[in-house]
Amino acid sequence: MTAVVLALALAVGACSDDGGDDDAAERDETSSTSFEQPTVALEVRSAYLVSTHAARAPLPADVTSEITEVVETLLRITSAEPLTVGKVGDGFGELFTPDAAAAAFGPDRAAFFDEDLPSFGELEPANTSIGITALNGGLTTDAMFAVVDLQWDVGSSIDPDARIVRTGELSLSRSEDRWYIAAYDLHVERTIGGETTTTTATSAP
Fold first, then answer.
1. Of 87, 82, 151, which Cα lies nearest the Cα of 123?
2. Is 205 within 8 Å of 180 (Cβ atoms)?
3. Is the dihedral of CA 174, 110, 105, 121 positive or negative?
4. Residues 132 and 186 reside in one and the same domain
């Protein structure tokens, strides 16, 4: 009798373990899907280096990539993630100089963050591009400052009339081999539910 009871206990335990593994796998899959980050890929319309030592020239590809990555990260955190997964991303302050971060995250937050809006489902880009004009610094021929002309025009896969149009300029500076947003001049139009609101923000350089 003891042997039979033990065999039944082992069988029940095995069934429970199998179900637990399936449940755990399902939870992992659901969790992975829920927190999947949208990607932002901007078209670079132009990228030039203006130097006091030479004529205007194409900006080196590595510098163009570094600057573009900063802007793409900014838009993913502040626009793509809120509109598609319902929450802002992490790392916003790391993209700015301290003074610019305080202003952007404080009084100018509404110009950056597309939050508390109906879900866009998937973003449908109409014009998501930048133009970069970089400047050398002092005696060096390396790019140390940059002005980025921004076009971020995206629609919704859920509501064909919903749209975010963000335009303006971001001024970046280079410090310790990293680029930071030091100033901005932004204009945002949000069309939701048939109504369009406009928000602007300008910071001191």
1. 82
2. no
3. negative
4. yes
